[in-house]
Design goal:
Elements lengths: L15 H13 L1 H26 L4 H17 L9 H19 L16 H12 L3 H17 L1 H13 L3 H8 L3 H37 L1
Length: 218
Amino acid sequence: MDRTLSLVQTSDQPDSLAQANLVALLRAGGAAREQGARQLYRLYARKLKASFQYRYRLPAAVSEDLVQETLMRAVEKIDTFRDGRFDAWLWRIGYRLMIDEYRATPASVSMDASGRDGDSPEQRLHTLVDTHAVDPALHDCVLRALEEFQRDEPAYADILDRIAVDGWDTATIAQFRDSKEGAARQYVSEGRQRLCEYLQPCLELAARLTSHQTQGSV
């Protein structure tokens, strides 16, 4: 029997060992890869759809399509996964696809940011996404900013990933960091502020693009 077929089954809340087992299954090929693909869907489809539909306010049908495409792309590109959190890597694939979808069909994809803090990273991302249809250079700017933030601030990036992907609340973060909830809130605030700093050049680019578009329409 292929050794990978005997790997421990992942749970509904995958830890680092479970994620490593899942990656091994997906890389194995054959029946093991099919098993891994089923586990991938079971573990992450609901979380991804919730992020697309409720965090980024995308229509349900668009969210479902993005989930399917994200998971298929992850299986296809599994050999490009390196060290780090698998779910964060998976979300970056989904985010790229979400931006590409918006650029392709901006009229049918509403990025509603109502009720959000106007200076939060989420609101800034919404602002940037609204300009993606204007110029693809902004697409590269955002992805580069996110990758640089992940590289330079891995601890902050890890916590923000867990909030975005896993839906962690302040109490969970406090328990994870072995701190009080007030300290956890402060830590998240600092991480979001740092992310905003990385996104700032893209906001400036978006403002220039918007200005040029407005001038051209006069």
